[in-house]
Amino acid sequence: MSLVGKQFPNIAVNAITDLGDTFKLNVLEEAVKKNKKVLLFWYPKDFTFVCPTELHAFQEAMPEFDKRNTAIIGASCDTAEVHFAWLNTPKDQGGIEGITYPILADTHRALADELDILDTEYIFNDDDTEDVSGDNVTYRATYLIDETGKVFHESINDMPLGRNVQEYLRLIDAYTHVQKHGEVCPANWEEGKDAMNADRKGVAAYLSNH
């Protein structure tokens, strides 16, 4: 079920940073209490292949997210200890050394299960008992959450498909424009381009000029 337009789940999960301290992090509270937008991205597993490229890409873009008052949070179902080991593995060895934003360690899969983003399949046996197949790790799910805790974007990629970080910056810009000006943002909109009023005259004027 889509969360777009709804409040993000109020669930606290263990998290860790490059400093090594484990703490509870509630994504909803990060948005509401700190009056920030939040980008939460899930990846399948530590010490894998596409995953470190994404974590480094988000890290490199942190100054742009900071300009937009947006916090970045990574997440997987690995333990905090495994996260910390990966955080201390050099980049040229496939590690994520240099990542500074927090990473959720949803080992009990409480939040991932609530979001329904786990790669699991339930198989019913002849005696009506259930077996679980799949790797029980998350897909590459991404959530953009506003300052009220409302989700304004979600997307889910299959395991082999890495994300385009620039698209999330564009979406944040578009949503912020809507918040500030009340206009809506047409296809391929970018900061500085024309938006339009959400009525028949608005779309007619926009299409006549583009």
Task: Set down the secondary structure blueprint.
Layout: E1 12-16, E2 22-26, H1 27-34, E3 37-42, H2 50-60, H3 62-67, E4 70-76, H4 80-87, E5 103-105, H5 110-115, E6 121-124, E7 130-133, E8 140-145, E9 151-157, H6 165-181, H7 200-209
Parallel strand pairs: 3-4, 4-5
Antiparallel strand pairs: 1-2, 1-5, 3-8, 6-7, 8-9
State the distance separating the first and last CA atoms. Answer: 36 Å
Strand order of the largest sheet: 2-1-5-4-3-8-9
Query: What is the CATH class name of the largest domain?
Result: Alpha Beta
CATH homologous superfamily assignment of the largest domain: Glutaredoxin
In helices, the fraction of residues equals: 25-40%
Q: Rg to the nearest angstrom? A: 19 Å
What does this protein look like?
This protein has 7 helices and 9 strands, in the order ββαβααβαβαββββαα. It is an alpha+beta fold and 210 residues long. It is elongated.
Task: Give a brief outline of the structure.
The chain is an alpha+beta fold and 210 residues long. It folds into 2 domains: 12-162, 3-Layer(aba) Sandwich (Glutaredoxin), CATH 3.40.30.10; 164-210, no CATH class.
